[in-house]
Amino acid sequence: MKVLSSFAIAAAFAASSVAALDAKFYGINYDVRTSQWGGCKDFHTIAEDFNILKEVTNNVRIYGTDFECAKNVIEAAHNSGLKVWLGLWSEVGTTVATDSFPSQNNALKELVNRTKLINNDDILGIQVSSEALYRYYVLGPGSDRRGIDTVVGYLRTVQSYLRDHDLTFPVVISDNMDMYTKFPELYDEVDVVAVNQFSFRESKTAEEGAHFTFKRFQEQETRAKRAGKLILLHETGWSTAGESPKVREASPRAQGVFTQDFLTLAARQNLNAFYYVAFDLPFNPTEIERNFGIYNADREMKPEVEAVHVGAPLQAVRLWAGDNVIKAHRYWNADDDSVNENFGSVYAAKPSVGPLGVLDDEIWLWDAASSILYSKSSNQCLDSYGDLNTQTLHTYDCSKVNHNQKWSVANGNIASQNDANFCIDVDVKCSKTPDGNLVVAMYRCNGHQNQLISMVPAADEPLEIGIKTNGGVLTEWFGKVTWETSRKDNADCHQWFYDPVTQLIASKSHRGMCLDAYERKNYGVVHLYSCSATNVNQKWVVNDITGQIHHATHIGFCLDGPDNANGLVHLWSCYKTEANQKWSIKPVKA
What are the residue boundaries of the Ricin B lectin domain, all occurrences included (predicted)? Predict the structure, then answer.
């Protein structure tokens, strides 16, 4: 293994700009090439790059696998504390496109057989193609099944090989969102849905970019949930220079705006994305493609990116109006494949219980510093507009300077801070919306019971996590985690707290202890461990369509109960039809 001397590393730091952001990127796309046509940076250069990148991310993604080059990348990443998402560059072969999958796959096998670098700790995952379907069906001549059949065949080949070698990290097909929509079988085939989205190329302004990305992402996320899968955004970003018919603005200013908005979106949605790209690539053929880097070619972070500030995580809350909760309509329907015609509207209903697909509708993020309530399901903020006599409540594009979005939470009321002096009001006796939900209105603050709204942090909201149909419930008993049908005298043993911001599942009966899974394998141990929002073994994602509880870090593994009651829960490969993985989350107050 090649190891840089301490002097060389110090010199690299002295020669390069090391800048850190207050919120890291989940991952960064990293190009190993030395020219438009290929090549590979040497180990020393890669190590210098990674010593810069480790300040802004924990993960890097590459596009191809040559034995020596990939070996250098993985070794340098390990030395810098980074994990690697590998890639196999492939094409659907045509007269103008040569497929390199066979040689790339052989290089992967060589890495597995000759080194210990391909392991479940250092490798995050691998894609068998990157936009190969797009190049074949959109840019190329494809109109048949050959393209999709080819890349799915590659996927199965690599999945089978890696599993035979006890390598459990996810194998995916990475492509743009339209290809997943065109070929819905992809959702079932891949271990995790991996999509690209460049709002930059869809005639959007930088100010529109992040929210448009959210809307497209929610569409794909909903389909991924139906397939029982998690989803990653493999590429998104904004160039700082160049012109193209569908590009509204490529500039440092625009990149700064989009990066600010996107990192804010990612933090609020727990959206895991690989940002495109680490460094400017001077050898690329167009000005746009040369200037996507968050760093320039001299490893200096671009000033508009360095100025990005996301701030502290917001607090997930529910807004209770009696035994109902206030909700915001999402953009993409959970129960069919269409845009929600009620997007932007606010309503009240009983809390979501079971696999309804609308859990996020009732989750708000409270920004105490700016007195704003952010809707997780709509990526908009609670907003009351009108005049001094009439106010209307809805969700609207977030703005910290919009007084219609400022709220005062006191004395059991939630009052708008604009000049109208109106409070949120839910009257269970009034007429309902066409879909049977309660109307959430704004009336002058009067202390009436209709205006008693309690803001309850999700981290303090007791839940029961049920399983099976015979009353089974997730249970903590003397430090062990089981599912049981018989109830303990201490009801707290059956109650948990789930915070969708930290993604922690905390025990009520054993305070300060959270569900923790440290083994990425079937029958992986699930136990209680001291809660920490930075502990990646404690991150869980609730699939509110299938009922699965995915491990957010050990992608492809879910919380799984034994066949019979009283046995210990564990990790197991995710299967949406597996009864032992169908959980139902229910607030105790529901």
Answer: 370-586
Identity of the amino acid at 54: K
Burial label, 150 (beta-carbon count in 10 A; 0-12, 13-18, 19+)? buried
Q: Do residues 538 and 532 lie in contact, with contact meaning Cβ atoms separated by under 8 Å? A: yes
The gap between the terminal CA atoms of the chain, to the nearest Å, is 58
Domains located in the chain, CATH noted: 1-12+29-172 (3.20.20.80), 197-310 (3.20.20.80), 315-457 (2.80.10.50), 462-587 (2.80.10.50)
> Residues near 465 by Cβ (< 8 Å), separated by ≥ 6?
473, 474, 496, 505, 549, 583, 584, 585, 586
pTM reported for the whole predicted model: 0.95
Residue 234 has pLDDT above 90, yes or no: yes
Torsion of CA 54, 55, 59, 61, to 10 degrees: -80
Contact 269, 376 (CB under 8 A): yes
Write the DSSP symbol of residue 136.
I
Task: Please say whether the dihedral angle defined by the alpha carbons of residues 553, 333, 131 and 56, taken in this order, is positive or negative.
Answer: negative
Residue 18: pLDDT band (50, 70, 90) is low
CB contact at 8 A, 36 and 57: no
Rounded to whole angstroms, the Cα distance separating 223 from 60 reads: 26
What CA–CA distances, in Å, run from 374 to 63, 201, 303, 378, 438?
36, 27, 28, 8, 20
**Where do we find the tokens 């109650």?**
495
Q: What distance in Å separates the CA atoms of residue 572 and residue 190, rounded to the nearest whole number?
A: 17
Q: Which amino acid is at 401?
A: V
Enter the tokens of residue 208. Answer: 């529109």
Quote the DSSP letter at residue 278.
Answer: S
Classified as helix, coil or strand, 449 is helix
Per-residue pLDDT of 57-116, as tens digits, reads 999 999 999 999 999 999 999 999 999 999 999 999 999 999 999 999 999 999 999 999
Measure the CA–CA gap between 444 and 273, rounded to whole angstroms: 43
Give the whole-angstrom CA distance, residue 90 versus residue 136. Answer: 11
